Amino acid sequence: MGPAITEKLATIINKRWSEKLSDQKLKEKRDQHPRPDNCDRLVAPRINPEIWARIDHTAKQLDLRASTNQANLAKAGVVLAKSTDKLLSLYQKDSKPEYRELITLNTDALALLGHASCEMSQRRRETLKPHLNKEYTTLCASHVPVTSLLFGDDLQGRLTNIRATNKVSNTISDARKQYKNTQQWRPRSDYDKKHFLSKGPRQRQKPPPPRKPNQWNRNRKNQ
Q: Can you say how many angstroms the Cα of residue 97 is from the centroid of all Cα atoms in its chain?
């Protein structure tokens, strides 16, 4: 390893290489640094139209992901080109360098390179995901931090947490299945069915009492 750099700068670099920029921050930095007119190769090259027309949708999506990341690398190259051009200009004029602007340019370049590195790490995880046990595929999630190791430093701790979480989930799932299997279902009669406006089961209505014969009918029978 080489000699250490300024601690503040090292902190910035380690942070940028561990997590991506937000979408808004990335757009701001890309918009701040347009490509010089005479650097037409400092871009993410597009697929030739003849090839693009003959590849399937999956291949197109894969290339779009890769080209987006390559565009971020190209933008970092733009920033470094501007910084180097500034240094050359100051050197030729034998004047004092504009430190603030140079620091800003190089810091932006580091941020863009760090973002691109995080994207590449995530793509590598997704490539490895089909080859991992399904129980541990959450290791490939984007929220898992990237360090000097692709799946983070505390891998054993994460594996332990994943096993514990899966065990709880499986226990709950088995309990639900067992409960469902032990239930005894019986069809409800028409009187037991719950009306959609009622709060409880519908009650069976009692038949009306028999009508009593009136006095006039009794007298006619006795005659």
A: 43
Residue 77 burial (CB count, 10 A): 19
Does a structural domain hold residue 211?
no
Domain count, the chain: 1
Per-residue pLDDT 10s for the chain (223 aa) are 889 999 999 999 998 888 889 999 999 999 999 999 999 888 888 888 888 888 889 889 888 888 898 999 999 999 999 999 988 888 888 777 788 888 888 899 999 999 998 888 888 888 888 887 888 788 888 888 788 888 778 778 888 887 887 776 656 655 566 656 665 555 555 544 444 334 455 555 566 666 665 555 555 555 5
**What tokens does 25 get?**
């921050």
Q: Read off the DSSP letter of residue 217.
A: H
- Is the entire prediction scored with pTM above 0.70? no
> Does 198 map to a domain?
no
Residue 144 domain boundaries: 39-171
Do the beta carbons of residue 58 and residue 50 sit within 8 Å?
no
> Which tokens hold the place of 26?
């990335």
Note whether 137 and 129 are within 8 A (CB): yes
Q: Is residue 22 part of a domain?
A: no
Residue 15 included in any domain: no
